[in-house]
Amino acid sequence: MFQSTHYKGTKEDQYHMLIKQLDALLDGEPDEIANLSNASSLLNQFLDDVNWVGFYVWRENELVLGPFQGLPACVRIPAGKGVCGTAVSEGTSQRVHDVNAFPGHIACDSASQSELVVPIFKDGQIYGVLDIDSPSIGRFDEADEEHLSLFVKTLEKHI
């Protein structure tokens, strides 16, 4: 869901506009940190009911905190641990209705109640993850997962 003051139309229309804006914002910028920073800021500005939006980057066999918007976060996450580590080890998005029911959930922010994590790939290898937390149980649906996966595909062209 987007804040209605920014985009009008269906949820899908709003996501398509957001993805176009991301592509234009990152066009021609080669710096990965700058691009991840702007991507997290853009998502934080337009997604409602979220309390953390950011990236973890795969470094030396673990996820390391990258650019984000929100409260301070866990710095390192091993593959297979928590929602982010599971997304890396399985190579698939993880949409968690209630993080308290997720085995091994890492609670960086006790306010987080649901989470969506999308893996990012570069040259066919894991690059990192997009991690979005919400203070509401069940915040993310199939449409969010589908369109945020497209958002990540667009981001992958710029990293």
Briefly say what this structure is.
This protein is 35% helix and 26% strand. By secondary structure, it is α+β, with helices and mostly antiparallel strands. The protein has a six-stranded antiparallel sheet, with helices on both faces.
Features:
4 helices; Beta-Lactamase; GAF-like_dom_sf; 6-stranded antiparallel sheet; globular; alpha+beta; 6 strands; disordered N terminus; 159 residues
Structure commentary:
By secondary structure, the protein is α+β, with helices and mostly antiparallel strands. The chain has one domain: 2-Layer Sandwich (Beta-Lactamase), CATH 3.30.450. 35% of the residues lie in helices and 26% in strands. It has helices spanning 11-26, 32-46, 82-90, 142-156, and strands at residues 52-59, 62-70, 76-78, 94-96, 114-122, 125-134. A hairpin with a 2-residue loop joins strand 1 and strand 2. Helix 1 (11-26) packs antiparallel against helix 2 (32-46) and helix 1 runs parallel beside helix 4 (142-156). The chain is globular and about 40 Å long. Mean pLDDT is 93; it is low at 1-5.
User: How many angstroms separate the termini?
Assistant: 26 Å
CATH superfamily: GAF domain
Q: Please provide the count of β strands.
A: 6
* CATH class division: Alpha Beta
Helix content: 25-40%
Number of domains: 1
Low-confidence stretches: 1-5
Mean pLDDT: 93
